[in-house]
Amino acid sequence: MHPSQSELLKLKNLGLASVNILHSIGIRSLEDLRKVGPVEAFISIRNRGINASRVMLYALQGALMDVHWNDLDPELKQQLASEVDRLLATQNSD
């Protein structure tokens, strides 16, 4: 197992499948995830044709906050979802 893979696997909400997906978009460490952020990471995942649900978005945010995704504040979840929707709408209008 690659060291960065084990680093990501130690984060809340992230299992091997999620870590492999993150690797596919170039996120190999916690620092990479912090730099990109959960919204951009989620959009990159979707842009690769991976059918990720909003749970993945919330899981990424929760991983950064060391909180189970289901325990995130509902307002934060709504804010994340709205930002994704806004960015995806911008992409689709180009």
Automatic annotation (TrEMBL):
<protein>
    <submittedName>
        <fullName>TfoX/Sxy family protein</fullName>
    </submittedName>
</protein>
<feature type="domain" description="TfoX C-terminal">
    <location>
        <begin position="5"/>
        <end position="83"/>
    </location>
</feature>
<dbReference type="Pfam" id="PF04994">
    <property type="entry name" value="TfoX_C"/>
</dbReference>
<dbReference type="InterPro" id="IPR047525">
    <property type="entry name" value="TfoX-like"/>
</dbReference>
<dbReference type="InterPro" id="IPR007077">
    <property type="entry name" value="TfoX_C"/>
</dbReference>
